[in-house]
Amino acid sequence: MGAHDRAAALTLAASSLTDRAHQLRANAAELADVRLAPEGFAVAPDPLGASALSALIWMISGRSHPPPRVALEPGLAARTLHGVLIRPAGRLGPGTLLTREPAAVALPIQACDGAVWDGRFRVRGAAAGSTLGALGAEAATLNGWSRLPAVVLATLPALRHGTALVAVPHLAFPDREACRSVVVEMWPGRQATPSA
Questions:
Q1: What is the C-alpha to C-alpha distance for residues 32 and 45, in angstroms, rounded to an integer?
Q2: In whole angstroms, what is the distance from residue 54 CA to residue 31 CA?
Q3: Sheet strands side by side (includes 96-100)
């Protein structure tokens, strides 16, 4: 490769990096208005561009790969995509709710320190023998504990010992004291604003 070819290749690479930096800044600007909740859902303003929507869905899904680009149409019409429900935010305020699809959450795991459930929540301090999984159908019995929509409640991480529901830390259930020793925090494997 001659000097002219190297210079052309460097110019092309610099242009590509500049374009990528502009796209990342645009995504970050769009995502700045998204309300990401510690319960693992988001409320996004309308409209949201395809790149920002893809990054947000990828993070909320907990999956190791992004949603298919072909499925990302402009706007936030109600649908399910990549294990994430997209629908009007309703009582959560203006915009669109993006939350994990209850049928797509991971199976329960042993709640040992540092374990990550559903690609999104890390647990510390759970009692030996506990499992961490979705609250699921038991969400209906805890409607009075939160104003969150039932679809969000069903996907909250819950600690069980055997089949007995022991705690839902995001709801401080059964009480704050019982939840004080255990930490279940949003720990997505993917940030909504990628660095590359």
A1: 10
A2: 11
A3: 35-36, 42-44, 96-100, 84-88, 79-81
Residue ranges of domains in the chain:
1-32, 33-101, 105-186
Give pLDDT tens digits for 41-97: 999 988 888 888 888 999 999 999 988 876 666 555 788 999 999 999 999 999 999
Write out pLDDT tens, residues 107-136. Answer: 999 999 999 999 999 999 999 999 999 999
pLDDT of residue 68: 84
Cβ(124)–Cβ(113) under 8 Å?
Answer: yes
Alpha-helix runs per DSSP H in the chain: 3-31, 50-61, 150-153, 176-180
Residue 47, preceding peptide bond in cis (omega within 30° of 0) = yes
Tokens for 149?
Answer: 């929509």
How far apart, in whole angstroms, are the C-alpha atoms of residue 97 and residue 75?
Answer: 13
Q: Tell me the CB-side half-sphere exposure of residue 130, using CA atoms within 13 A.
A: 23
- Give the max Cα distance, the chain: 72
pTM to 2 decimals? 0.83
CA 80 from chain center: how many Å? 14
